[in-house]
Amino acid sequence: MAEPDWIAVDWGTSNLRAWGIGRDAEVMFSETSDRGMGRLAREDYPGVLMQLVAGHLAQDGASVDVIICGMAGARQGWLEVPYLATPTSLDDLLGKAVRPALSASRLSPRILPGLCQARPGAEDVMRGEETQLLGLTTLVPNFSGVVCMPGTHCKWVRLDGRRVEGFTSAMTGEVFEVLRLHSVLRHSFTGEPDPADRAQGLTDGLAAGLAAPDKLMTQLFRVRAASLLSDRQAGWCAGYLSGLLVGSEIGGQRDWIGSGGEIPLIGGEALAQIYAQGLAMAGVQSRRIDATDAVLAGLKAARSAGA
Amino acid sequence: MAEPDWIAVDWGTSNLRAWGIGRDAEVMFSETSDRGMGRLAREDYPGVLMQLVAGHLAQDGASVDVIICGMAGARQGWLEVPYLATPTSLDDLLGKAVRPALSASRLSPRILPGLCQARPGAEDVMRGEETQLLGLTTLVPNFSGVVCMPGTHCKWVRLDGRRVEGFTSAMTGEVFEVLRLHSVLRHSFTGEPDPADRAQGLTDGLAAGLAAPDKLMTQLFRVRAASLLSDRQAGWCAGYLSGLLVGSEIGGQRDWIGSGGEIPLIGGEALAQIYAQGLAMAGVQSRRIDATDAVLAGLKAARSAGA
């Protein structure tokens, strides 16, 4: 059996992914699992990791490096890894990694730190995105500027080469989910959404959010009122809510995006497309970098830097 | 048994209140129940109303008027009452009321309409607040200007005497609840909140929201980050979230409140106090009108106007 040189792991809140990496940095295997931090107790981690990769390793042999990023290093994770405080360089992620105990195993795991911003009034944290950012520096060499990372908690980052100057998290994705599921707006999302109707709602919502990001609290209720009064259907309402939230977020970040230059959007395709449309409506160009490509490139770069 | 001349009813989403009103407009009894619209099917309404007031009526006698405002007139209520479209006068609420069927009873109920704003892009609805607004015109004669009505869906209304020019609803109260219960921020609210700590968080949150109402999506996550990094406790976090949401709402309404003049705050004491503090920080004076006083005055005024 051809064994990997080392194993790269992205351990998030919802999912866990592992890649076996060969001597020439090629991916030899990849495994995914839904055993994210949210479903695990501290003592579950060693067994879950072993089970995920055991089929790709012989019983005996030399120790195999495992480089892990993400929520495995959170306080509720496998082993808490202290944050690096911004401004900070991404060169030292591996140097600040910690080693969880893993007895009677060929695996030699290290968990990379996340980043924090401790300044009172601008407190913020990230775990996992710092590795994607390091990946960006290898996928788009010499990039400096603002990066947008859409997700449950979208991160906006000021990057200068490998130096993270500062960042801020927008709860937009999570606010969309809790309003969709738990607020009075849920009554407006019944029925099968029509794609064209949804696209129109998205455009209308982006325009409304960009035009008045300070009026989000009053514009939200329009979702419900428009379905009661203007016969708006589930597709338009869902598109409008999504667009309104993202438009307000982008509209509130004008001091970040005003400086010009193409903004890298690191994220999944569907969500990144919404942000790309909103940024374009605000006069800003963007290019998407797949989040999986970025995290894998980042894990490779972290290991190279520390090797 | 001294019987009431008529019965005033405020039938909301969560609660139901009834007052027996005498010939001199005095309150002879009041009853409350948790049988709001949210817990009722259409066929439940007659029995719930009868049960609430039956003890105050003799078996036989003349028919007794019941004037009802609120969600009983909603599509999911007892009987849908068409909205009056703004701009509109509040003088004709009783004239546009509808009569639900109530056989074999001495009660003769009418449900008052709510208001809608049908203009595309500014769709909005209210049910119940229009009656509080009518009450305001008798409690504060000759008032014209902007009214703020804090609640689950806070209403901002432009009133010119008894004419409602327009209004907008802010989902602030509901957004607070869904984020507190269902988002990642819930982890920051464990433990007994300290009142002084909460007051400080409230002031900090109001200031943050007023300073940058367009940055709500990014400021929200600070609740979680501040508890992770700056050891903020449950009291501060809850106060900050509440203040941030209300401050953002008020900050986004500067085009409404800029014209000067004291703003009536119609609502419950605790929530109205938060709005009063936020308005004061924005340089605007306010006076609280109790929501129960306002709705009762409004139901009386509606019946007088139509008598």
How would you explain this protein's 3D organization?
2 copies of one chain form a homodimer. Chain A has 307 residues and is an alpha/beta fold. The first copy, chain A, has 2 domains: 1-118, 2-keto-3-deoxy-galactonokinase, substrate binding domain (Nucleotidyltransferase, domain 5, 2-Layer Sandwich); 128-307, Nucleotidyltransferase, domain 5, CATH 3.30.420.310. In chain A, 36% of the residues lie in helices and 23% in strands. Chain A is built from 10 helices and 14 strands. Chain A has helices spanning 45-53, 129-139, 172-182, 195-211, 216-219, 222-229, 234-252, 254-257, 269-281, 291-306, and strands spanning 6-11, 16-21, 27-33, 64-70, 84-85, 88-89, 107-111, 115-117, 124-126, 144-149, 154-160, 163-170, 263-267, 286-290. In chain A, the strands form 4 sheets. Chain A has a 5-stranded mixed β-sheet, with helices on both faces. In chain A, strands 6-12-11-10 form a 4-stranded antiparallel β-sheet, with no helix packed on it. In chain A, strand 1 (6-11) and strand 2 form a beta hairpin. In chain A, helix 2 packs across helix 10, helix 3 (172-182) runs antiparallel to helix 7 and helix 7 packs across helix 9. The radius of gyration of chain A is 21 Å and the shape is globular. The interface between A and B is large, with 48 and 48 residues.
